[in-house]
Amino acid sequence: MTDNDTDDLASLARSVHDEARSYLTTVTEVAAGSAPEATLPLLLLALSDVIAAGARLGAINDVVPALRFEPDVGPDPDVEPLRANLANVFEGVDEYVEVVDPVVGPEVAQATLSGDLVAIAGALAQGLRHYEAGRPIEALWWWQFSYLSDWGERASSALRTVQTILAHLRLDVDDDVAAEAEYDALQP
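Now predict its structure.
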């Protein structure tokens, strides 16, 4: 590996670190319910940003850490309170249907927005723990592996769901309201 490769990976690790930290902050704020009117726009942006970071991870060659095992970073954090708070925030719209594997076939399954957001948070947090322990290559390896195996798909599904909810909220109107708006728009 050349010095340029090392510098590029270090730069990418910093970038993904920043996006992961931002995502975790946003999801925690959304789960707290402090700004319900901003919930969907905040998640739309956070998911889009973390998906862009993940795309950069998917586009590069496989990151291979020097050690062939993942160093222990301690016990996994308890994310159940975060999931429960998010489920409360999305009560009534938390569950959705998704295609399990669009390449293999049309099988659908139930998913939850709260579960997806927490799965992404857990994977990003694991990489952050490696990064903050001074192991940026290990962090990149974890983020890349988990992006390709799980959180990238979860983030894409969650983004589509958030965007769909937002579209329904902004575009679904009563027929009378729509007819009145059409009439007003056609008047000189």
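The chain is about 70% helix and 5% strand.
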